[in-house]
Design brief:
10 helices; single chain; 24% strand; 16 strands; globular; two-stranded antiparallel sheet; alpha/beta; ten-stranded mixed sheet; 354 residues
Amino acid sequence: MNPRVLDVMSTIPTTFNESFPSYTVVGGRERAGATGLSAVLLNREGRFSRRRLFHELEKTGFDTVISVEPAPARYDIEELATRFPFVRFILLKDEISFGEQINIAASETDTPLFFVLWNDIKIIVGGTARRMAERLTCTNDKTDEGGGNNFFKRLCTVPVIQNSRFETIPTIKVPTWCQNKIATLFFNPKNEGLPSLYPFDWIGIYDRDRFIRLGGFDSTLKHKNWQLMDFGFRAWLWGEEISSTKTMKLSYDAGVPAEDHSVNTDYYRFYLKNLAPVFKGDFAHLPLRRFPGYALKACGSRGTDNILSAWEDFSESRRWVKKNQYRWRYSPDTVTDCWNYDINENNYIAENGG
């Protein structure tokens, strides 16, 4: 079996990663179905039966499976690629974020939809891959622009997720302002179609075309929380939708991964890209008046008075906003106002605002 080595891939400029890190592709030359839905498998440390997992994914009927393998490569890759020819193994040469791993996997699959899963999670409700894809197919094949190229409901559909004791996890993420800072509230998916700011633990069914047009996950953000927040805010600001469904249910075999919402340098890049731009009329821009306040906070958090470094970051973000200025559909305040929540009832009602 001859592996395929990719050092740098050409991608959509500005809207998708300019280049990917070096990786190797092994296997995956066959398709197991024709449903339009593939599985993207992320791998966490732990002793999980890979053969059992691939058998389950095969029975579910995914067209292909993209398994992203962290470095160093496991000894059984060649054997598994022969036994499961519908599995394409992405062998990473360096450690990269999970968002970057999903970007690579999205570029390697050719199905309209892909389902991001983990090696420590299983599908307990949902049916076959064909049935999952059918639930996400629109009856009207026209998009807002009048074309007929996209037949699916939204950018990302988030399933119900349970822990190993089959208790539902509060996976619905709701943004709110707290003392002039962005915060996130968590709720259980009690109703069908509840909007969520971003997919919990990256898990969900993504529309591949929309994902690539959006730009995927920002590879410059390494912190899990701010990478997901950036993806979710950018999606809603640009008029996309991330919503939950109760027709699919997953459960973790092991513990639920912890979330870290601490503020670090990644937060400030997230802020400059999503919260600082001003949307007016039909375009957005990052005004110079935002710089003094940003520099004061950013320099203080880094323990340095390097105003030049803060200006470089600010200028880079201004250029990025300018390149994408006409993609904005809403302001940050409009996005956060889309959700009304009742803390006492631990529930919320989403308004039709984005």
